Amino acid sequence: MTVHVVVLPDPAACGAAVADAVADAVTGAAGGPVNLGLATGSSPLPAYAELIRRHRRDGLSFRGARAFLLDEYLGLPRDHPQSYRQVIRRELTDHLDIDPAAVHAPDGTADDPAAAAARYERLLLDAGPIDVQILGIGRNGHVGFNEPGSPPGSTTRVVTLTGRTRADNARFFDRPQDVPHRVLTQGIGTIGRAAHLVLVATGPEKAPAVAAAVHGPVGSAVPASLLRDHPRCTVVLDPAAAAGLGPGRSGRMCGTGTPVRGYR
Ligand code: F6R
């Protein structure tokens, strides 16, 4: 068991802790370019706001960094405001000094999505390991868009979203029926190649999935539980998302306020 659970007072503190992990990777990169793995959705937004603040205020530089998105909707036009390529530009990368050409996402507009998935997997393999991978978690335990049933060794592929995930993501679209049915997502095996996984979850609606991921059986029924096999996985929670966890169980609980920085 190598999951480190960190409970912090609120989403802003969680964002700062995630930003610490990213900043450590960026400033600690020895030699080659740092590879950042980025999630979209609501959970990482405080971290992204914090990274933008540190860039502007402290000069934290992303020059030379490369960024790789976890997933992308299939079938949205490239310039659709909810395509993850656009979301990550709007929420993060347009506000940093990262080269826009170094921000990569699976091609959700490809005529042959399976070929696009294989190309993205290849791109990731050629880039070398992701140094720090930011993750959220779905209410059904998905990571990336690896829905329940996803195999541990899965690689980038086409996935059909569950009704629950489409309903959860409907808040980003004008009409629920506009949420795409299919996505391209890095697989569990792809995500597992990253050197450091940092999963952030806030709010009470995430508590059951977090508890299942950290304390429940390891298996494809709760894809996030498969990350417990990873050598370095940090789970950053606010108290509401941590409500289903108890101390002294299989996950190693670290006390409120324990910073991510310095963790294995
Ligand atoms: C998005 C992604 C998803 C989200 C998850 C939680 O790139 O990979 O796994 O992290 O659906 O979404 P939010 O944070 O919006 O609750």
Automatic annotation (TrEMBL):
<keyword id="KW-0119">Carbohydrate metabolism</keyword>
<dbReference type="Pfam" id="PF01182">
    <property type="entry name" value="Glucosamine_iso"/>
</dbReference>
<keyword id="KW-0378">Hydrolase</keyword>
<protein>
    <submittedName>
        <fullName>Glucosamine-6-phosphate deaminase</fullName>
    </submittedName>
</protein>
<dbReference type="InterPro" id="IPR037171">
    <property type="entry name" value="NagB/RpiA_transferase-like"/>
</dbReference>
<dbReference type="InterPro" id="IPR006148">
    <property type="entry name" value="Glc/Gal-6P_isomerase"/>
</dbReference>
<dbReference type="InterPro" id="IPR018321">
    <property type="entry name" value="Glucosamine6P_isomerase_CS"/>
</dbReference>
<feature type="domain" description="Glucosamine/galactosamine-6-phosphate isomerase">
    <location>
        <begin position="10"/>
        <end position="229"/>
    </location>
</feature>
<dbReference type="InterPro" id="IPR004547">
    <property type="entry name" value="Glucosamine6P_isomerase"/>
</dbReference>
